[in-house]
Design brief:
With 159 residues, the chain is an all-alpha fold. 62% of the residues lie in helices and 0% in strands.
Length: 159
């Protein structure tokens, strides 16, 4: 029986954020993709999502992001190289590269998401999966690129 006089409140699990979960899954897949360069994307996606804690349809946003990043990777990498001043592209940590590719794709192709949301998510993912320096590096590149978009950074297009 619970002690009602206890000062301890029950631990409440944090609310799941599906979009955040999808961005993290997309970053993890892109990291793996960069390291292994699977020849068959369909099989690689199937294998990856079969190991996730949620059913595959939960990750539909992640799949959209992954396929878009892979499709537009050369163009996205040009943007990263342009804004990663004084930094050799091949020296960018693979986790940071996956985060940057994901966020730049989202800034380029997902006008329904405010740029500041995309950037904040990327920085949060860098905080959780990379180094303290990485969050500043990621934020710096994305913040500079945001100015090139020509839209209100706090609003989704049409909002």
């Amino acid at each position: 029986m619970e002690n009602l006089e206890s000062d301890q409140s029950p631990v409440v699990p944090p609310k799941r954020n599906r979009r955040h979960d999808n961005r993290v899954a997309a970053m993890q897949f892109l990291y793996s993709w960069e390291s292994q360069r699977h020849t068959d994307l369909v099989t690689a996606l199937y294998d990856f999502f079969s190991e996730q804690e949620q059913p595959r349809d939960y990750y539909s946003f992640a799949e959209e992001l992954i396929q878009g990043v892979i499709r537009d990777c050369a163009f996205i990498d040009e943007i990263i190289m342009r804004y990663a001043q004084n930094w050799a592209f091949d020296r960018i940590a693979k986790v940071d590269l996956a985060i940057l590719r994901l966020a730049i794709f989202e800034l380029l192709r997902r006008n329904d998401i405010p740029p500041v949301v995309t950037i904040n998510e990327a920085v949060d993912i860098a905080k959780a999966y990379s180094t303290d320096e990485s969050k500043r590096f990621v934020n710096g590149i994305l913040d500079r690129y945001k100015g090139e978009l020509g839209r209100d950074p706090r609003k989704a297009e049409g909002a």
